[in-house]
Every structure is written in structure tokens, then in C-alpha cells.
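Problem: given the chain below (125 residues), write out its structure.
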Amino acid sequence: MDDRRERGVAAYASQLGLREDEVEAWFAERMGERFGAEAINAAAGAWVDDCLSLRDRSLLVVAALVAQGAVDDRLRGHVRWAVEHGSSRDELEALVTLLAVYVGFPRASVAMEVVREELAQLESG
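Solution.
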């Protein structure tokens, strides 16, 4: 594996809670090999350690998913990852509260339920 691909696989393994050797099969099963290869390649460039910290990137992705109404497993996974990258309950709840003003109460309120459920699950064990 080249370095870029390795970084992408490592990013998805961390995000999805998989071993690195399981990432490609996870994508292939759900979305096909071609899509998986593109996603892995994109993640390598998107999650590099440059001027934005992993914490900052995680909060931005949570915001983007909430804005899109993506309140499914992707949001849950990114909430977990945001916590792993140093975000707190207060920060995540403040972020979603702020987004209610900009993306609308219906999207933000559903997202807040997902965020709080995921945080409760993380805090319980």
C-alpha cells in the first residue's frame, strides 16, 4: 500500500472502529470496491495533520453532516470520532444548538437527539 492509501485506511479504521485490514471489505460490501477506493483516497487527503487539528476537523464534519440532515450512522460515527479527537459534550451540544439558527430547528433537533444518544452510550461504557 502506498502512503496515501495507508493514511486513508487508517482514518477509516479509526472512524469506523475496524481493524485496518477490514476497511476495504467493509466498503466493498456496502458500496462497492470502486467507491471504497475513492473514499479511502479522499480520506487520506482530508484528514492530514496540517493547520486544522483533528478535533477541529471532527467538529467541522459534524456540522456539515447536521447541515445536510445526515442523522444516521455517519453522524454517530463522527460524534464518536470528535470525542476521540478531544471534543467535549458541551462543545458538541453547543455546536448543534448554534446550527439550529443556521440550518433550522427540525434538522438540528433531530441531530441533537442523535448526538446526545451517542454521547450517553460513550459515557456509559
